[in-house]
Automatic annotation (TrEMBL), chains A, B:
Its cofactor is Mg(2+). It comes from Pantoea latae. GO terms for biological process: phospholipid biosynthetic process; terpenoid biosynthetic process. GO terms for molecular function: metal ion binding; prenyltransferase activity. This is Geranylgeranyl pyrophosphate synthase. Keywords: Isoprene biosynthesis, Magnesium, Metal-binding, Transferase. It comes from the Bacteria. It holds the Pfam family polyprenyl_synt. The keyword Ion transport does not apply. Belongs to the FPP/GGPP synthase family. Gene3D superfamilies: Farnesyl Diphosphate Synthase. The lineage of its organism: Bacteria, Pseudomonadati, Pseudomonadota, Gammaproteobacteria, Enterobacterales.
Length: 302, 302
């Protein structure tokens, strides 16, 4: 079953698996070298290199390519790794005892369970600051694009982004809240970083403001869809995370039921696809990837 | 008693108190607006705006001015605020229960005691990421200088900077360690951020590589002097921090006694001053400021 109406079957999309391997190889090189005496470095590596979907960096690269950018010097790959480092840092912090106190992440014990809470917090801080440094030192990208990327990423992490999402989830997640309030929290938790990834792709590719706005709206809908999928998957055993972590939390699945949520998810995806199609006219790799990715995941929950 | 041999009494240094007021006014505007419902924003404000020495941002501005830079657009002030935000974030994290578990900072209850541990951690992350965003959006500074500043700050925060210093302090502070090991920890804890401040001043002012290297060496010695002063002051009641927090820690004061440490401190300051004098030939404000600042502080411990 496919979600999107139009697509051109003659176009061969970039291979996401090859991209994923490129990202992981580069991440490995951008992180501190493996050294058994350096716990914080090991925790950074474990947090960022443990098997993950890498959906944010893959989307960043594909979108830039769909906007016509060719990454001859490797700077785009570095931007993608920066996004993944920020995501990894946010997962480490989400899991610590005073936040969600989670035991499992990406199929392994959480970072604080492996290295202790102080090292987990320091590794998250080091990953975050490394992300900004990686952007600043990316090859083949103009200083202007880099400063715009830093500004976008800073916004997505801070009080209008991941930090706000985590705070709202912590303070409101256990209480009754409206569907709008949940959607707003999901915006901060998920859409904000997707938007930063898309804006970073756009500034690298030198996309016009109009495309940037469309990519922003794409990211907002994609983030909502992504969070709804995450909620639908809670309770399945193959997520690599603590199962039933949302039990007792006021999620849309608990409030509206999974059928309604799945319908909402598909609506978000359709809107996301329309924005993406309109923003990128040089390629369709991102659309193919998003479609295939959600098709596969939704097949497991339907 | 003065530490430095040469100075030109005809030169009037910039007024550090006026600079401090400028920095605090600008910090106030760069932080989230005061909103009682936004705990994380309030914690960020409290962490960054509570009375502090502001020595890092003052030095950054003075050094850039001594290198000939005139801050017509306000970007230098923003760079200075970014350094202070990073410093404030590091203090918040140093104090949390799983790190130093401190009760007092800057004369007030620590941030986690005022707002709880999760909010303290989120406020620190938000301050850190805001610092990078403030650099990226500073007015009147070239994108190239901004990306260099981001790279310097990223380095000073991460695994080769504050994070490493905090980790070493946590894991080695309670054990016997060599004077060299203590000096290395102090390098990460203190010198790294002083160096970033000096490099940010230098890139804004377009200083040549030779000056940048001298400013780096100035920062290394200044950082050591600063940390030794901090150790000498531990136990005094007017630091605004928990008194006797270093009791049982292997500091140089505990190892060598305060007389030897004071001699070392003065040696570091003299070396620092020589580097600074050689790096900045357009002004002496930074030298005056450092001298006056240490003279005043040392008078309280001698």
């Amino acid at each position: 079953m496919t979600i999107f109406a139009e697509r051109d079957p003659t176009l061969i999309p970039s291979d996401p698996l090859m991209l994923l391997a490129d990202i992981e190889r580069r991440l490995d090189r951008l992180l501190p070298a493996e050294n058994e005496r350096d716990c914080v470095g090991l925790a950074m590596r474990e947090g960022a290199l443990a098997p993950g979907k890498r959906i944010r960096p893959v989307l960043l690269i594909m979108a830039a390519q769909d906007l016509g950018y060719r990454d001859d010097a490797g700077g785009l790959l570095d931007f993608a790794c920066a996004i993944e480092m920020v995501h990894a840092a946010s997962l480490i912090l989400d899991d610590i005892p005073c936040m969600d106190d989670a035991e499992l992440r990406r199929g392994r014990p959480t970072i604080h369970r492996q290295f202790g809470e102080p090292v987990a917090i320091l590794a998250a801080v080091a990953l975050l600051s490394r992300a900004f440094g990686v952007i600043a030192q990316a090859d083949g990208i103009s200083s202007q694009a880099k400063t715009q990327a830093v500004a976008e990423l800073s916004h997505a992490v801070g009080i209008q982004g991941l930090v706000q999402g985590q705070f709202r989830d912590l303070t409101e997640g256990g209480q009754p809240r409206s569907a709008d309030a949940i959607q707003l929290t999901n915006h901060y938790k998920t859409s904000a970083l997707f938007s930063a990834a898309m804006q970073m792709a756009a500034v690298v590719a030198g996309a016009p403001l109009e495309s940037r706005e469309k990519l922003h709206r794409f990211a907002l809908d994609l983030g909502q869809a992504f969070q709804l999928l995450d909620d639908l998957c809670d309770g399945l055993n193959d997520t690599g995370k603590d199962a039933h972590q949302d039990a007792g939390k006021s999620t849309l699945v608990n409030m509206l039921g999974s059928k309604v949520v799945e319908k909402r998810l598909r609506d978000h995806l359709q809107r996301a696809d329309r924005q993406l199609a309109s923003a990128c006219d040089s390629g369709y790799a991102t659309r193919h990837f998003v479609q295939a990715w959600f098709d596969k995941k939704l097949a497991t929950v339907s």
